[in-house]
Amino acid sequence: MMRRRGGLVRMAATTAVIAGTAGAVQHHQQQKYANQAAEQQAQASAAEAEQEIARLEAQQAAMAAQQAPAPVAAAPSGGIDMEKLKQLGELHTAGILSDEEFAAAKAKLLA
């Protein structure tokens, strides 16, 4: 007769080893999938952030274009430009323009 030593104990130990190994593999796989999901979420968040930044920059550029000052309208050709006339008078008073230069520039502005 063959003698079987520890048949029941051996079978219980083998089952425990297999169950433990399966549990460890399952835990490793769960961590791997969790890490992959977190990485994908981080990439999606980064892409959304870049899109939001681009959208805000475009919005700021549009606002800046809208807020740009309107070009100053030129003085009507028939009117007298008093500001330039005052400047000419100040230049003449300071001695920068001679009497003839002042008279010529004044005549040109008033014409």
Task: Write a structural description.
With 111 residues, this protein is mainly α. The chain is 77% helix and 0% strand. The chain has three helices and no strands. It has helices spanning 7-67, 82-93, 99-110. α2 (82-93) packs antiparallel against α3. The longest helix is centred in the middle third of the chain and has 61 residues, at 7-67. The mean pLDDT is 82.
Provide a compact summary of the structure:
With 111 residues, this protein is mostly helical.
Q: How are the elements arranged and paired?
A:
Elements lengths: L6 H61 L14 H12 L5 H12 L1
Primary descriptors:
3 helices, 111 residues
Largest sheet: none
Number-wise, the strands total 0
In terms of DSSP E residues, the strand content is under 5%
Percent in helix: over 70%
Ranges with pLDDT <50 over ≥5 residues? Answer: none
The dominant shape is rod-shaped
H-E order = HHH
Radius of gyration: 45 Å
Helical run tally: 3
Distance between the termini: 138 Å
Q: Give the averaged pLDDT, no decimals.
A: 82
Structural class: mainly alpha
